[in-house]
Structure formats: C-alpha cells, structure tokens
Amino acid sequence: MANGQVVLVTTEPLGGGAPVRSVYYVAEQDPAKAEAIIATMMAPNERVEALGPLPEPAVKALGLRPGDFTHG
Question: Of 14, 25, 37, 51, which residue is the least packed, with the fewest Cβ within 10 Å?
Fold first, then answer.
C-alpha cells in the first residue's frame, strides 16, 4: 500500500449561488490519476482538484484498496 490523495470536488449550482465543496479520499498516489478516478463520476458543472497526499496509515484506516475512494 502507498499514500493516497485528498481530492476536492467543487460543484457550481446550475441555478446560481455559492459553490458546494466535497472531499474525497482516493487510494491512488499519483494526483492526476486520483483526479481521473473521481472525475469519471462527476457532472459537467463539477471541478476536480487533487489537494495533496493522504498518508498511507490513513488509507489503511479508511479500508481503501488501490483505486478505491470514499467521500469525506
């Protein structure tokens, strides 16, 4: 197991208003790959951005396997 990534998803409401932000924890060390994993399920009005590493102990504590993710 290796480090993962913390990924931020920002949703721009279609009717206007303040953006909504959600955090995902991804068991993927490469930031671009972690973004791609989350981007596959996002809508066109959502932006995906890797924020930084998720330490290996946290990946294990969340019970994530390589390529898995969970919503924070």
Answer: 14
- Separation between Cα atoms, residue 41 and residue 16, nearest integer Å: 22
> Taking CA 52 as the corner, what is the angle to CA 3 and CA 19, rounded to the nearest 5 degrees?
135
* Count of CB atoms situated within 10 Å of the CB of 60: 12
What would the 3-class secondary structure string for the chain be?
A: CCCEEEEEEEECCCCCCCCEEEEEEECCCCHHHHHHHHHCCCCCCEEEEEEEEECHHHHHHCCCCCCCEEEC
Task: For residue 31, give its domain range.
Answer: 4-71
Looking at the structure of the chain, the number of domains it has is: 1
